[in-house]
Amino acid sequence: MINSLKRRFVAHLDPVLMYALGGLMFVSLVLMYSASDGNWGRVLGQLVNIVVAFTALWVVANMPLHYLMRIAVPIYVTGMLLLLGVMSPLGVNSHGATRWLNIGVATIQPSELMKIAVPLMMAWYFEKHEATLTLKNYFVATLLLAVPVALILKQPDLGTGLLIAASGFYVLFLAGLSWRIMTGMAVLAAASAPFLWHAMHDYQRHRILMLLDPSQDALGKGYHTIQGMIAVGSGGLIGKGYMNGTQTHLDFLPERMTDFIFAVYSEEFGLLGNLILLALYGVVIARGFIITANASTYFTRLMAGSITLTFFTYTFVNMGMVSGILPVVGVPLPLISYGGTSMVTLYLGMGMLMSIHSHKKLVQS
Amino acid sequence: MKRHVELKNHQREIYFFRLRLILSLGFVLVLLFILLSRFFYLQVVKQGYFKTLADNNRISVVPIVPNRGLIMDRNGIVLAQNYSGYTLEIAPGKVMDLEGTIDALAQLVDIQPRDRKRFRKLLSESHTSETLPIRTRLTDVEVARFAAQRYRFPGVEIKARLFREYPYSDHMSHLIGYIGRINDKDVKQLEDNNMAGNYRGSDYIGKIGVEQSYENELHGITGFEQVEVDAGGRGVRVLSRTTPQSGHSLILTLDAKLQEVAELAFGNYRGALVAIDPSNGEVLAFVSKPGYDPNLFVDGIDTENWDALNNSPDVPLNNRALRGQYPPGSTIKPFMALAGLEYNIREPAYSISDPGYFTLQGSSHHYRDWKAGGHGRVDLFKSIVISCDTYYYGLATELGIDNMHEFLQQFGFGKPTGLDMEGEAAGLLPSSEWKMRRYKQIWYPGDTVSAGIGQGYNLVTPMQLAYATAVLANDGVGYRPHLVKQVMRDAEHEAPPEQPVVAMDLKLPAEHIALVKRAMVAVTQPGGTAAGASAGASYKFGGKTGTAQVIGMKQNEKYVASQISERNRDHAWFIAFAPADKPRIALAVLAENGGHGGSTAAPIARKVIDYYLLGKAPKPLQNVTDSPEKEDD
C-alpha cells in the first residue's frame, strides 16, 4: 500500500534529475548557513522555498503534456497583462526601477512569470504551425518574444530581459531559424549597439564599463565585482574551508545569500568545489539534453531545449558575473541563491522537463 | 508541395533538430570551458594575488602608541605626567553630515562653541584620515550617555587616551614646554628624519622646551597590533601584537623648589633668571616671567586663550631666559676688567681720577658716569665695587673693540651656550668686522666707549650671562650647561647620570680671577652697589649689578625713573655666585623695567641663594630694598 503510494508519488520524477537537484538543494542549504553567518532562520526560509518549489515541480511533472499545451496561451496573456499593469499606477517603484505589481495581497514581479511563459508560448506557436512553417511564422514568434522583452527592458531590468530574450532565442534556434537570418540579426545587433548604448540607463552603462575596468570605481559600482573576484581567487585550489571565508564572514562580499552566493562557495571550497558544483549542474544540463533529444513532439522538443539551455545560461551568467567576466546583471545562481520566486520558476522548468520525459514514456509504453 | 515533403520527412526534421541540439551542446561546452579557465586563472594562477587582497581587506595594522616618558626634577618631583581619560572622537571620513552629527552629539555631551571651533581648526590642519577629538576629558556620566546611544553615531567613538598634564601649570612652562597635536609641519619634519613610521598612531609631539628637545627620548617606540577587521572596520580579533616601548623618563638638573622660590621672588616683575651649578653646568633654576599654562596647548589651544597669550603686552610666550636679548650693562664690567688685566692695559694698582665723565681725544663729547661729579680716584677693584663707568670708558678705548670681542667671546658671549634646549638666541658681541658686515660702516671710537659698559650693540641672553658668571665663578673652567641630569633608559638599572662635560678652560691667571672675584664680593658688602640686598647674609657671595637702557638719553637729559613710562624704564640685572670661596651656584637675574640692578634684581638673587645655600623658605616678597648709594651705572 505504502509502496504503491510511494511509487505513484515518484512515478513522474526523473531519478537522474532528482539526484542532481537533491545535490544542489543540499549545497544551497549548507551554503545558506555559512552565507548568513550561521542564521538558521535563513536556512529554514530557503528550505520552505525549496518545499514550495518542489511542490510546483511535482504538480507540473505529473501534468500530462496536452495540459502544458493548453495553459501556454492563458499564461502568456496573463503575463503580458501583468507586465502592462506594471506600467500602470499599480506598478511599484523601488531603487529606480518599476518591476513590481501590487495586487493587493502581495507584490509580484510579472517578469519572473514571463521566463516560463515566453518560451512556452513560442513553443506552442511553432507546434501549432509545425506543418506549415514559413518565414512569417518565425517573424510572429520573434514578435511574441520581442514585445515582453522590450517591456521588461523598459522597467528597466536588463538581466531578466536578456535572459528571457535568450530563452526565446533558443526556441527560435532549435525551431530551425535559418543561418542567414541569424547572421543578419547579429549584424543588425552589432550595428544597433551604439543606439542601444544611447538608449541604456546610466546604471546599465556603468555596469558594462565596470566590467572593463572594475578598479576604476573600487568603492562604488566596481565594489561588487572586485570583492567577488577576491573571494573566488583567494579561495585557491581547495578553498579556505567551510565557514572560514574571510570575504564572506567579515562582510566584504555584498549580496552573499543571493547573487554572489557563488563567491561564498568558491571562497570556502576552492577550485575543487567549483568542479563538483559544475558537475552537478552538468548532470542537470546533460539530462536536459537527453530529454530534449528524445522528446516526442515538436512542442516538447523546443520547450525542453529552451529550458535546458536557459538553465545553463543562468548558471553561466551568474558564475561569469561573480568571477568578473560578465557585467553584474542581477541573476541568481540557479537553485542555490536565496529566493522563492526564482526557485519556483526554475523548479517549474525542471518539472516540465520531467513531465516531457515521463509522459513520453507513458505514451510509448 | 514543399510542405508536404517536409511533413513526410519526419526523420529528416529530427535530424536537423538534433544537429542544432549538438551545436547547442558545443556552445554549452565552450562556455563551460571559458568558465573553468577563468576559475583556474583566478584560483590557481592569481591565487597569491587575491589572497593578498583578501588579507589586505581583513587585516588592519593598528599602531599602539607608547606611553610618553615623565619629566621629573632632580629630587623626583614630577613636572610632566600622563593620566588616562576619555575623548569623544569623530572620523571625518566616515561621517556624512559633520555639523548635524555634532549638533546631535551636543544633546548628549556638553559641547561648547569653542570645542567646535577647535574641532574645525583640527580638521583644517589634519594630515591623516584618523579620528579627531570633539571633546576631551569626558565625565563618566557623559561616557555612559554616549555609549547608550552609540548606534546612532557611526564614525563617532569614545577613546581612552593618555593625556599629558603639567601639574605646575605656568610655573615651569618655559623650561618644560608642552606637547601638542602633530601638524603638517611636524609631519614633514618627521618624514625628513625618517621618523614617520614610529609616529603612526601618535597624535602628539613635543613642541617646545624640554618636551621638544628630548622628544626622541620621551616618545618611545610604537607597537603594532594586527587586527582582523570586518568590512565596517570593526576589529574582530587580534592576530599578532608587538608591544610598544614606553618613552624614557627624564630627570632634570632643575630643583623645582628652588624654581618656585625664584618665580615667587620676581613678584610682579617680568624677567628671567638662570641659575647654574658652576662645578658641573647643571641648570638649577630656569625662570622666564610671565609664564603660561602649557596644559592649554596639549589638545590644541582655543582661539580665545591663544589671542590672550599672543597679544598680551607681557609676551608670556617669549622664553626670556633663552631668547630674550638685552644689553648686559654693567654686568660686563668684571669680564672687561679681566680683559684689561689679560692684555696688560690695566695694572691692579693703576688708578684714574674720575671727573664724572670721559672724553675721547679730539672730541668734546662727554660720556657721563652714572654718578654726577665722579667717584674720585678709582682703581680696578673699586671700579667693580662702585661700578665706575669712566674707568671702563677709558679701558675699552685703550683695549679696542676687536680685543674686547676676542676676549669676551671666550666666556660664551655672542653665541649659543649649547644648552640642551632648542631655539637658543646667540646674543650679540660686536666687532669692527661685524659692523662692516652688518651695516657696511667702519667702527667708530665712540662705539667702543659705550661697548665698554655693556651698552651700544651688545646683547646677551640671561642664559649667556648666567653661564659666563658660572665660568668666572669656576675660575675659567666652564661645563656644558644642561637641563637633563639623567635619561632613564633602563627602568631597572638606572642609567648613570650625565657626566659633566668641560666646554671651556680659559686658563686665565689665577690672581686676575681672584682679584675680580674679590671685587665682586665687595659689591655685596657695605659700600658696594648691592650692599642693601646682601645685608645680613650669613655667607659671603660675589655679585655685580647692571642696568640695561631701554631708551637712550640725550646729552643733557637726566634719567628720572618716575618721569618715564614703566615700559621704557631700564632693565635691572644682577649676576652672582655663592658662596664666595667655593661657588655652588651662579646666576643671572633680569628684571624687565626694574630700574636698578642693586634694588630689584639683587634681592631676587638673594632669595634664591638663601634658599639654595641655607634652605631658607622664602618669605612673602618684599619688593625693593635700597642700596646705600642710590644708583649704579
Could you describe the 3D structure shown?
The complex is a heterodimer of chains A (365) and B (633). Chain A is mostly helical. Chain A has one domain (16-364). Helix content of chain A is 73%, strand content 3%. Chain A has helices at residues 2-10, 15-35, 40-61, 65-87, 110-128, 135-154, 158-174, 179-199, 202-212, 222-235, 246-249, 261-294, 298-322, 340-364, and strands at residues 91-94, 97-102, 107-108. Chain A has a 3-stranded antiparallel β-sheet with strand order 1-2-3. In chain A, a hairpin with a 2-residue loop joins strand 1 (91-94) and strand 2. With 633 residues, chain B is an alpha+beta fold. Chain B folds into 2 domains: 61-252, Penicillin-binding protein 2a (Domain 2) (Alpha-Beta Complex); 256-614, DD-peptidase/beta-lactamase superfamily (Beta-lactamase, 3-Layer(aba) Sandwich), CATH 3.40.710. Chain B is built from 23 helices and 22 strands. In chain B, strands 2, 3, 4, 5, 10 and 18 form a 6-stranded mixed β-sheet that branches. A 5-stranded antiparallel β-sheet of chain B has the order 12-11-22-21-20, sandwiched between helices. In chain B, a hairpin with a 6-residue loop joins strand 21 (571-578) and strand 22 (585-591). In chain B, helix 11 (256-265) packs antiparallel against helix 23, helix 14 crosses helix 16 and helix 16 (389-399) packs across helix 19 (445-451). The longest helix of chain B is centred in the first third of the chain and has 36 residues, at 10-45. Chain B is elongated. Chain B starts with a helix and ends in a 19-residue tail after the last helix. Mean pLDDT of chain B is 86; it is low at 1-8 and 620-633. The interface between A and B is large, with 43 and 38 residues.
